[in-house]
Design brief:
The structure is a homodimer. Chain A is α/β, with parallel strands linked by helices and about 375 residues long. The first copy, chain A, has 2 domains: about 220 residues, TIM Barrel; about 120 residues, D-serine dehydratase-like domain (Lyase, Ornithine Decarboxylase, Chain A, domain 1, Beta Barrel), CATH 2.40.37.20. Helix content of chain A is about 30%, strand content about 20%. The first copy, chain A, contains 10 helices and 17 strands. In chain A, strands 1, 10, 11, 12, 13, 14, 15, 16 and 17 form a 9-stranded mixed beta sheet that branches. In chain A, strands 2-9-8-7-6-5-4-3 form an 8-stranded parallel beta sheet. In chain A, helix 4 crosses helix 5. The longest helix of chain A is centred in the middle third of the chain and has 20 residues. Chain A is globular and about 70 Å long. The two termini of chain A are about 35 Å apart. The relative contact order of chain A is 0.16. Chains A and B meet through helix 4, helix 5, strand 10, helix 10 and strand 17 of A and helix 4, helix 5, strand 10, helix 10 and strand 17 of B.
């Protein structure tokens, strides 16, 4: 058998996490939350691992954020406070959420009457109470109620539905993708909008104990937003090329890379690695300059310029480095959440030693066979 | 429990295959191969399923094509003739290939001296013979030997290495992405190049019993290429929006769709479904016009215009259709191979009845935990 304890012999492509970097990332965010009195509720979509979630909870995370019922089911093994930051629409989805273990405090974020009614029905059928955040559209225009009047009406309806409890408001500033230094105007607009919304909720006699927001790009400026009590960053645990490009982390904070092998140098001016779309995802750098689909950890002047499913083409035009077939590289991906979602297993390394591995336990959907 | 036997109650997002369409696609390609005396060696990267592979073999497929060692290991349960159309570089990869069951005829495609030496070493260690296709670069500039002299030298080296056997030449016309009707010039260039190459191999006394090529975009014109004896299409089993856009299949031949639920209509002019990057992949239409990341089966005027990880934003601007929250849609993805790779399970339907499901058994890498 192949020796699995060194980066030199690990089979490629493989997702490898620098444990020192990851632990530093977790510590830094936990310190920031504590310093500013914010509840950190990490989004598990990035790691999909109860083990990493436990490391977040051990550092003081107030609970976890999930996107899918399967993520919530897996995370219920390590946390008793889960937020589904996704509209609980569709009978099957609502039922799975309501069927989470009774000891788990469950909250959902939603933006429609249909969702209120569906999760209310499922909560009553399961004889439990489900908390609700009314989701506001603060400028991303994805989900969330755009008009304040509609948000207030939805909150009142939540209060009127047995089995549900208005627990707060939620927003996601996913549209703020400027580099951290250039977010002033966007954050000011965001803050003004939140201010107005919270005043209206108060004037209407609607109590919103939690104001839940935050993404990784705006992570370190969450405390500047008036009224925010909790934040839900996901990517910060591993970071990626995009996070570094917009200045929300340093290049040295990128903890996850895709280990790959050079499999061909037959075509001049390039080298082909065994990490393509099925290992890296076809994600752009967003909010900052950055061509290609990933950047080499050890040769940052080299990018993955093109991809097929199992091939990544390295552009060597800006580098003196001339790899040979069999040489190994580590690629910092543009969007780490997608890379994790493509893997069943992630390896943890310190230096060149492969110390451990863990399953991406909440990958997939937990679907039933027919 | 939720009733799983109808499309109306299946949990979303889910990959569903129209079995009638798939069976028709399999039949049509098998008939084409038989009619032209070509060996069809389907690429399993598209379905990653022994069950679908068996359906291909039952219709006369000569063997299977794989990209990864794990695909080969899984497919060895249903076929005794496997081609790894990927450079067998890296000790771990070469060893896994050589460790396939002894009854399986194993062939690899390669383009470097290093690959010859590595797979040769592994073959001798496993006391077996591995067939080799020398891979030619016919214009895609991904892998493959560009210069004929180098290809001839590599073929001679294969013949000189104990444990290896020169079995043929391989090429992949992945650069031919024009619509089928506009491929004339590209196929002529390709044919001329092949002609020259095969003459040189013959003149050098190098026997190439197999000339292996073909992709889904060029599938139906494979017989026009001089000397080709086998072809390796993958996508044709399910087809996708790209295949239809370039005219290599009809829209009605798209067999796989992603079933999704409308989860939000809060933001005017759009509807949000629960299929985003993690269900559809962020793949463009290639070789033809086509914005967005997928197109609705029942409302082809509607595309998935934007995506987050778990959200797809439908652009309703060209449609009179106004979906409500909870409504279900089926999305024909731009690139079906990526969608399958994102799923553990695929459902098979006839009409609205969910008849069966099968695991995407060769998804992932079959990696060892540490």
């Amino acid at each position: 058998m192949t020796d699995l304890t060194s980066l030199d012999t690990l089979e490629t492509p493989a997702a490898v996490v620098d444990l020192d970097r990851m632990e530093r990332n977790l510590d830094t965010a936990a310190s920031y939350a504590a310093e500013h009195g914010l509840a950190l509720r990490p989004h598990v979509k990035t790691h999909k691992s109860p083990r990493i979630a436990s490391a977040q909870l051990a550092r003081g995370a107030a609970g976890l954020t999930c996107a899918t019922p399967f993520e919530a089911e897996v995370m219920a093994t390590v946390s008793d406070d889960l937020l589904l930051a996704y509209p609980p629409v569709g009978a099957a989805r609502a039922e799975r959420i309501a069927a989470l273990p009774a000891n788990v405090r469950v909250t959902v974020a939603l933006d429609s009457v249909q969702a209120v009614d569906e999760i209310g029905h499922a909560a009553r059928a399961a004889e439990r109470t489900v908390g609700v955040y009314v989701e506001l559209d603060v400028g991303m225009h994805r989900v969330g109620v755009p008009a304040l009047e509609d948000a207030l009406a939805l909150a009142s309806r939540v209060n009127a539905v047995r089995g549900l409890e208005l627990a707060g408001v939620a927003f996601y500033p996913g549209h703020v993708r400027e580099s951290v230094d250039e977010q002033d105007a966007a954050l000011r607009r965001l803050g003004d909008g939140l201010d107005r919304a919270l005043s209206r909720f108060k004037a209407a006699g609607l109590s919103v104990p939690v104001v839940s927001g935050g993404s990784t790009p705006t992570l370190w400026r969450t405390h500047e937003l008036p009224g925010v009590t909790e934040f839900r960053p996901g990517t910060y645990v591993y970071n990626d090329r995009t996070t570094a490009a917009i200045g929300a982390c340093a290049w040295e904070d990128c903890a996850l890379s895709v280990l790959a092998t050079v499999v061909s140098t037959a075509v001049p001016g390039q080298a082909v690695i065994d990490a393509g779309t099925k290992a890296l995802g076809r994600e752009p750098v967003r909010g900052a300059d950055g061509e290609g689909f990933g950047q080499l950890l050890e040769h940052p002047e080299v990018i993955v310029a093109r991809m097929s499913e199992e091939h990544g083409v390295l552009d060597l035009s800006r580098s003196d480095w001339r790899p040979v077939v069999g040489e190994r590289v580590r690629v910092i991906p543009n969007h780490v959440c997608i890379v994790v979602h493509l893997n069943d297993l992630v390896y943890g390394v310190r230096g060149d030693a492969v110390e451990t591995s863990w399953p991406v336990a909440a990958r997939g959907r937990g679907q039933q066979a027919v």
